Amino acid sequence: SSGINAEWPLRPGEEIEVDKKFDILISEWMGYGLLFECMLDSVITARDKYLKPDGLVVPNRASMFVSAVSDEASYQHRFHFWNDVYGFKMNDVVPDLYKEAVVECVDKDNVISDNCGFKHLDLQTVKTPELEFSRPFQLQISSSSKLTALVVHFTCFFDGDVSIVLDTSPESETTHWLQTILYLKCPTDVLEGDVVHGLIAFNKDSTVKRGYVIKIEGAISRDSAVVGKFNQLYHLH
What we know:
- It contains three helices and twelve strands.
- It has helices at about 40-50, 70-80, 95, and strands at about 20-25, 50-60, 60-70, 100-105, 115-120, 135-140, 145-160, 165, 180-190, 195-205, 210-220, 225-235.
- The strands form three sheets. Strands 3, 4, 5, 7, 8 and 9 form a six-stranded antiparallel β-sheet that branches. Strands 6-10-11-12 form a four-stranded antiparallel β-sheet, with no helix packed on it.
- It is globular and about 65 Å long.
- The protein starts with about 20 loop residues before the first strand and ends with a strand.
- The model has no long low-confidence stretch (mean pLDDT about 90).
């Protein structure tokens, strides 16, 4: 036990200094796409400064996943709507829409691949520089359709005598984190067995505090042939 039973009222931007080490650090730091808002940075600082050497961070693990999505209705509504807005063509807004990482709920029936874990965080040891990264991913298409987007979701683990898992995937019960959708500029017809592969990168946005820039780059392969490519940047604000 830390022996401390107290409250510190804080105003935004304030910090506290205490001369004790703690047994456990509990924080609901997760943002959209797991890392939005950059609150994990503060948790890491608090962990390194105030947690006992054998102390516990809760949750203690987190993993990020990507999946393939086919949702032509949502794609049409989001992008083709601007071709005719009460008789006006407003296509000029569309290029900016492709740069947005969209936080919405994805219907599990629109997921057309397996899930690929591309980043795993051990909250007991992770360092701040590790929160910017580029990782490979590979997805196998499970249903012939049109690939319209990739979707990012995450899982947090509360390991212990009774372990708890917080899963934000489309297959699980909806949470307030929803999912993070990366719409493709060029939707591609895919067949069962096709492979979507490439790199996904998360970097802090230098122009928007707490924001992230997500980059995906890769291809869609069928047997030995490439049937589609993608290379896009998205802003998660």
